[in-house]
């Protein structure tokens, strides 16, 4: 497993300690790490690079089990960075394939080359964030960071039933 890029470690520490503004700074830094990779790699390479970075961040935040430290802002920052990096690379298309299945993660859409569906998902996420903050957090961690529902429950400190209900609300919106 790849190590967390050195440039990110101080920001991860700040975000895990809930330093004001650290999550936004971390998200911007992750996006800066992602941008050159996404610019030079073909879609399959992009997916592999994103998976490695997310896995290293997930492993890195596991070290923050000290009191007063949380993985939540780190993983939300990672999900935001992935979302913004992918949204910047999608066409302005408003189309969506009729009857298309909902992929489990944004990485699946990238692997399939379905940039129009990524654009559609990004627009729906903006709506969900305005209308249902808990569902937006769950969906962001599931769809963009690739966490499974039990992991999300642990990160957000929510019951698994509440996480499942929030994901179902968000997923229903994504399916349209």
Molecular structure report:
This protein is mostly helical and 176 residues long. It has 9 helices and no strands. It is globular and about 40 Å long. The N and C termini lie far apart (37 Å).
Can you describe this structure in just a few lines?
The chain is mainly alpha-helical and 176 residues long. The chain has nine helices and no strands.
What are the SSEs and their pairings?
Layout: H1 9-16, H2 22-40, H3 43-61, H4 72-87, H5 106-112, H6 115-131, H7 133-144, H8 149-156, H9 160-175
What are the defining features of this structure?
176 residues; mainly alpha; 69% helix
User: Would you identify the regions where 5 or more consecutive residues have pLDDT less than 50?
Assistant: 93-102
Q: What does the radius of gyration come to?
A: 16 Å
**C-alpha termini separation:** 37 Å
Count of helical regions = 9
- Please state the average pLDDT score: 79
The H/E string reads HHHHHHHHH
Find the structural class using helix and strand composition: mainly alpha
Biggest sheet overview: none
Taken from the alpha-carbon principal axes, the silhouette is: globular
The count of β-strands is 0
DSSP strand content: under 5%
Helix % is 55-70%
């Amino acid at each position: 497993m790849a190590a967390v890029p050195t440039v990110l470690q101080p920001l991860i520490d700040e975000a895990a300690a809930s330093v004001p503004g650290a999550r936004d700074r971390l998200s911007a830094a992750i996006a800066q790490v992602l941008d050159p990779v996404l610019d030079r790699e073909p879609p399959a390479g992009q997916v592999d690079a994103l998976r490695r970075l997310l896995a290293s961040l997930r492993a890195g935040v596991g070290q923050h089990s000290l009191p007063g430290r949380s993985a939540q802002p780190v993983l939300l920052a990672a999900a935001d960075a992935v979302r913004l990096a992918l949204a910047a690379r999608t066409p302005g298309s408003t189309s969506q394939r009729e009857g298309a299945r909902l992929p489990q993660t944004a990485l699946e859409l990238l692997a399939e080359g379905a940039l129009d569906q990524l654009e559609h998902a990004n627009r729906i996420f903006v709506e969900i964030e305005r209308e249902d903050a808990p569902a937006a957090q769950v969906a962001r961690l599931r769809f963009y960071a690739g966490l499974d529902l039990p992991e999300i429950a642990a990160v957000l400190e929510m019951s698994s039933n509440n996480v499942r209900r929030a994901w179902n609300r968000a997923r229903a919106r994504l399916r349209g």
